[in-house]
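User: Modeling request: complex.
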Amino acid sequence: MLVTGGAGYIGSHTTRQLIDAGYELTVVDTLYSGHRWAIPEKVDFHQLDAGDVDGMARLLEKGQIEAVIHFAGHIVVPESVRNPAKYYRNNVIASMNLIGACRQSGVGLFVFSSSAAVYGNPEKVPVSEEMTTLPINPYGRTKLITEWNLRDVAASSQSSAGGAFRYIALRYFNVAGARFDGTLGQATPEATHLIKVACETALGKRDSLAIFGTDYDTPDGTCIRDYIHVEDLATAHLDALQYLADGGSSETLNCGYGRGYSVREVLATVRSVSGVDFPIIETARRPGDAPQLIADNRRILEVLGWLPQHDELKEICRTAWKWERRYQDHSPAAPVQSTELG
Ligand SMILES: NC(=O)c1ccc[n+]([C@@H]2O[C@H](COP(=O)([O-])OP(=O)(O)OC[C@H]3O[C@@H](n4cnc5c(N)ncnc54)[C@H](O)[C@@H]3O)[C@@H](O)[C@H]2O)c1
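Assistant: Request completed. Predicted assembly structure:
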């Protein structure tokens, strides 16, 4: 198994679950936004760009790799608007190179981190996989292009000598939370995720938190999102691998719980679990925010047999808060020693 972006937030949680399940792993990460301490020392780690064709080909051929999980990418939506080329290079071209290296090396199973951002502003919720994909920012477009690339490569592989290539693209909704023992959580620099930012504000790392828009056509006027616990999301990757290994066909699947919470509900929950009444400022809408994004998750439940276990906002916020406090208590250069991470 090879994991790209395994030192990042979702990649590190999945790496832990893969190790616990007995997989032998190679992890590749540039450490651009990930951390070496997030990967246990015993893991075969390479500080390498997933789009480095020669480097990846060497690893894939040497390591008798059967499957790749591709988390690596840039993820900050506003930055993708300011600097689209950076996103097209890292999310599209690097992914294309990696998929090409897999084909060359005969690696036929691939799991890809896609995003609900491919839907843009959906005309209705919950959003199902068949609904129109019309991303409204470069980040979402880079994810959709890679989905198309995977689909075309998988289709062409059926009639090529290079062996079959099958994939699962998981369209994550809003990922949040942390490992229950508090040893792993989101440490992505400049994270823009609501629960992460709320926890940072509760800790005093930020002066206040802004709500962008309170006049949406939702019950309390703020945007509604489908928050999924990172540990459930990690499990979906293990399920996807098992499904592909059992001969399952390529699929694109929503990964969310199928219910949403408003910004106000989330902030009230973070205030309650942290016990801190941190300052909240109400400001104007941001361009490009859909009023509601909720997954229709029937397909992933049916196809992968995925069994989410942590579908509770309070639990998501409690684990995020526990992690944030622990992260704060360690030096920024080495927030949690890898020995502590097991
Ligand atoms: N966090 C979310 O809410 C969310 C939602 C939808 C989709 N996703 C997708 O999930 C994936 C993981 O996101 P995350 O939240 O863990 O972000 P993250 O920034 O914490 O992790 C990304 C990791 O990839 C590494 N990386 C980036 N480019 C690389 C490259 N070319 N080669 C090797 N390593 C590289 C980074 O150093 C980092 O460790 C991304 O592809 C992201 O687009 C995340």
